[in-house]
């Protein structure tokens, strides 16, 4: 390899990828599956993935136990994840001191989508995958969705299909590769590696897998509980392919100002989250079937027994976190001189590694505010209710079914005029080009905002 | 404010800043102080900042005590910092399991340099500041160097000068604002806000402060123990002003490949660092004057009594971490098609928030390897020794004198030809444009690499 040929033009490849994605998003029909065949494939996969999920008492969990000294819920192997307590002090939001259970899973897994050209049109390899926590069993998932325990084979199951595409990608084939956080209210410091990798014709769709155009994936994103959280976060890490918003457009604020805003919010917030034993977690009680808050709000930790024909392991049991109430995550979009900007909120969630990430305009579960005064409700929640009828996107989506039981939120995108005053330094209008750049670096947009970015781009 | 005038061109401002910095780096004489006056000012400041630092037993520390249950060293106010233990498992480096004391200071402070134009030439407001741990008392520091305890006035001292320039910068005046880590072997999750802000003529140099051109600052960077660590890290966050290396140049690897490399190293390393009590930290012993390793290597925790006429508080006592031996941090630079690239190592240091950051080609204290086999020594250390005579930069510099006692390292930049094979996936050649971009986002280059980038740019 001579120095000359080794030199890569770092911009050229990116433009090519955007053009290819734009072509795939506009492709009239699927090159591999027609829309009719896609619908039939989904129906078929749903039929052939029988999965029985049954609530069981913790005592019947196989390999899981409450540690005697702390009350923490752990797996005997030390793998998977643990549930312990968290003592939080935070100046973000209406409550400043609380304790809660939290999922601790320090390993970094891989969420990856393989992309491949068919007749010049880029296709994404999507998986039909059942997860025990899903309200409807099967959802559309990334090519690979592997915890480190998974791919290091802690549970002794079969190898994860397509894993090598992501662990050993060919030179120049990586489109995106970035660590992104997951729910900071339920996970402690959790992040996964979000990857998109180009593959060649040697990679074929196995059982439960299908090559879809970006238009087809975008179409599925418009349906309730169909594209799972892991797929959505990876999709958000694709370079934005919309030429009208990612060209050399201007932004309301300079990139430096946006970065400075994030830095300031991180530096000035006072958030301390200290791990504690689950047994000593104040206001949370354990009965044979669940660990719940005395108020009945927030969430419970539950246990399920799973029988499935389609997983690395055919039958297992595990704990899941079950939110109480349906969440709402809403994004305001406003045009400034023709360029759409999104209204993001700098959120301090207790489990974030870096204090603050940018979330949707509104992100909450309304029921959790019922005991609080009206003024404690999140800013813009009333505006979301008023304008929701005119939303350009309003879909019920699930959080990750491998950790969360029946966890659904309404994801809503609303176009607004410019009569939306900013209520505090927590909010800022950010352009799509800036979102695109922030998503290339870790921990800038939280998982709910990433879902909304994927949803917005799909329109 | 109409939408049209509100639109900021996010690229224009950046180019202007680079041009202004290039002008300042090339300015023949200082616009404010001549080089002769600068030398006189430094000599004068050193004379007028008498500081007595005396080792004392821990028992004589005012406000500091070893906590009974844990043995942790803490301040009675809960402010400043604490020293506790850390139990580390790591697959980076030759030792895989160890315990050590660590400084825990979760607050984010501000390190800021104000810049202002005089007769069209950009000047930096630098401070002559004594720190108890410095080998030579006074060093050249940023405009502001404030822990949160400092500026929230935990210690009841006087207000931090110029702080408002950074806490409330004028719109559009921020040049850089990014959280950066500090020594991951000595600090747990420590980071500071690195800021550069443009100010107007209303900001004047007070006592102990001087306006210097970038050429003058760069000149001072060539002198032993003169520009302190805090100044160096902020300087590294300046946009790279060298037109020959930051234009639309090519790089050996695409930006996506470099980001993917960092993500991969973070995902694949296995590092766990668990806080433990200082008293239970294995192989470390406490006597009345220090906490030290049984081998005599690594570092000690010591206590000092300080009398100073020039600080927010005139007299105080505090613990300091005292490294044993002089460190070395070396950076290889190699031209690829005329574009210089630096050889960075993906390092997992126990205190990093995000597992891995990019460090110098070589970073170590040789004495710590004396009990280990030769093969355990860091890659390229022998090459650094062989080529050090031809180094283009070789200066003895101090780490932060507010936390570290007599902590010095040789910082060395060596230009190499292309006969340097990469020994593992831990190493990669990165272009200056890529370094520039990585430094706009948090936690990509460690503090030693940032010093070397500032040093390299100064040449």
Task: Spell out the key features of this protein.
seven-stranded mixed β-sheet; globular; alpha+beta; homodimer; disordered N terminus; 459 residues
Summarize the helices and strands and which ones pair or pack.
Two copies of one chain form a homodimer.
Chain A: H1 3-6, H2 12-26, H3 35-48, E1 51-55, E2 64-66, E3 73-75, E4 82-90, E5 97-104, E6 109-118, E7 121-130, E8 138-141, E9 144-146, H4 148-151, H5 163-167, E10 174-181, E11 187-188, E12 191-198, E13 209-213, H6 214-221, H7 229-236, H8 243-246, H9 255-268, E14 271-276, E15 284-286, E16 290-293, E17 299-308, E18 315-323, E19 327-336, E20 339-348, E21 356-359, E22 362-364, H10 381-387, E23 393-398, E24 408-415, E25 427-430, H11 432-438, H12 447-457
Parallel strand pairs in A: 5-11, 6-12, 19-24
Antiparallel strand pairs in A: 1-17, 2-3, 4-5, 4-14, 6-7, 6-9, 7-8, 7-13, 10-12, 15-16, 16-17, 17-18, 19-20, 19-22, 20-21, 20-25, 23-24
Helix pairs in contact in A: 2-6, 7-12
Domain dTDP-4-dehydro-6-deoxy-alpha-D-glucopyranose 2,3-dehydratase (chains A, B): 37-238, 256-454
InterPro entries (chains A, B): EvaA-like, EvaA-like_sf
Protein name (chains A, B): NDP-hexose 2,3-dehydratase family protein
